[in-house]
Amino acid sequence: MPDIYRVTLKSLGLLTLGVGLSACSFEPPIHLPASPDKAGYTAAPAPDETAASPGKGGGAQMLDYGKNLHQAWWKLYHSPRLDALVALAMKHNPTLEYARAQLHQAEAVASINASVFYPQVSANLGAQRAKTSVQTGGGKSSSYTYSLFTGGVGVSYYPDIFGVNRLVYKSSEAQVEYQRYQLEAAGLTLSGNVVSAAIGEAAVRAQIDATQQIIQQERKLLELTRTQYHAGSVSELNVINQQAQLASSETLLPPLRQQLAVYRHEMAILVGSYPSEWHDKPFTLEELHLPKHIPVSLPSALVKQRPDVQAAERQIRYAAALVGESRAEFFPTLQLTGSFGYASNATRTLFSPASTVWSLAASLLQPIFEGGRLDAQEREAKAVFDAEFANYRSTVLGAFQQVANALRAVQNDADALAAETTSLDASRQALDLAEYEYRTGATDYLSLLTAEVQYNDAKIAYLKAQAQRYQDTAALLLALGGGWWNQPVKGVPAALSPVAGGQAS
């Protein structure tokens, strides 16, 4: 049997053996913890409806368990300006652009690793002119000049005997999916930051307006007190106390204005602008509407809907592939090479049958002694796998904790706003009555000052409770995953596609 056929048969035999062996995976089994069997997120049953109170943002909220969440979750606030702001951030935010680039990089690496499954084919064409010296008998030497023209095709291939190539590609695929979920998480975080900044800006603006109204009212009371002092109805101490109360209220404005500036600057950065270039008018609570119906996914679906949990799972699969790679490196590596071409001293005879040259080769590399390197690599890979599995469990538990906290916050915020509304109404009535009695001389200034302080505190507390409902509602929607899985274009990550429209309740 000619040598070429022997080599070919041996190579095919090794390749067949490799296909059989590669079916045996070196990866450790992955047994993810099951989702809780309970239908709810908290130990005590959560009500389906929150408390209601009069005023802006005081309406009852319905928790629709088992309902699917709209992808553009921020549309539940029914604010066209907020929708436009989120869309602007999705288009220009540098953090999101970085996440997109990371995904594209991972996809390119996966394509590079996929190329090992195919034979590597290369062509060459060369021309050489050389002079050589030849020793002859009697110590004489002679030289001659010649030309050499070559051309041919070379092929090399690494049969995946023990599945190393498959494991390398599998790990790169896991990284692609990981970066895709990281992109989704970045988009979800970005939309949450925009909504949070808009609500925070609106809340601070409302507190500034309320504080300015309080200051204006206190100035009127100061003028009234001065008038009564000049008329001899009250002592100078009343005037000084009212001046102190006015100054105390005025000290509240600079910190609030600083908070407003911080929110404005944050908004500029989120949409990819410099703070000096951001001139959009501030948000107000009047243009934001508290979502009436909140779709709440069931616990069994939460794991699939949280991009951070899905990203953590892909890291486990990546680590499992690394363990497989480290184990497979203990076994031989086969390389098959072949070439066919022409070589001649003259171009006119380069492609003649007599000028053909070829070669076939097979090499098998078996590690024997590596100084403990392979064992250490396997231990490292196993440690990475254990760490990623623990990180997955931590991420899942954190996700359920966030949803449970947000659910309780939405319910408690409604109760708190109802209580603050009652307190504000009572303190307003008390202040109106104290002002009337003070003007008519029926009460002393101390009673008026006490009612004034109580009303001021109640007004600010009411506005904070009102804004907190908006913030915690957004936190619940984000904790549930934000609806990114409802993609307008199948197979395209929500953070990569245009912001979806549609109806929201």
Written overview of the protein:
With 505 residues, this protein is an alpha+beta fold. It has ten helices and six strands. It has helices spanning 3-22, 80-92, 94-114, 164-230, 236-250, 253-270, 299-305, 307-328, 373-440, 445-479, and strands spanning 62-65, 120-135, 141-157, 293-296, 333-344, 356-365. The strands form two sheets. It has a four-stranded antiparallel β-sheet, covered by helices on one side. A two-stranded parallel ribbon has the order 1-4. A hairpin with a 5-residue loop joins strand 2 (120-135) and strand 3 (141-157). Helix 9 packs antiparallel against helix 10. It is elongated. It starts with a helix and ends in a 26-residue tail after the last helix. Mean pLDDT is 86; it is low at 1-23, 489-493 and 498-505.
Task: List descriptors.
505 residues; two-stranded parallel sheet; 10 helices; 6 strands; 12% strand; disordered N terminus
Order of helices and strands: HEHHEEHHHEHHEEHH
- Rounded mean pLDDT is 86
Q: How big a fraction of the residues is strand?
A: 5-15%
Judged by helices, strands and strand pairing, the structural class is: alpha+beta
Low-confidence spans: pLDDT under 50, at least 5 residues? 1-23, 489-493, 498-505
Alpha carbon gyration radius: 37 Å
Largest sheet: 4 strands, antiparallel
Bin the helical content.
Answer: 55-70%
- The best one-word shape is elongated
Q: What's the total number of strands?
A: 6
Sequence of strands across the biggest β-sheet: 2-3-5-6
Task: Work out the helix count.
Answer: 10
What separation lies between the terminal Cα atoms? 80 Å
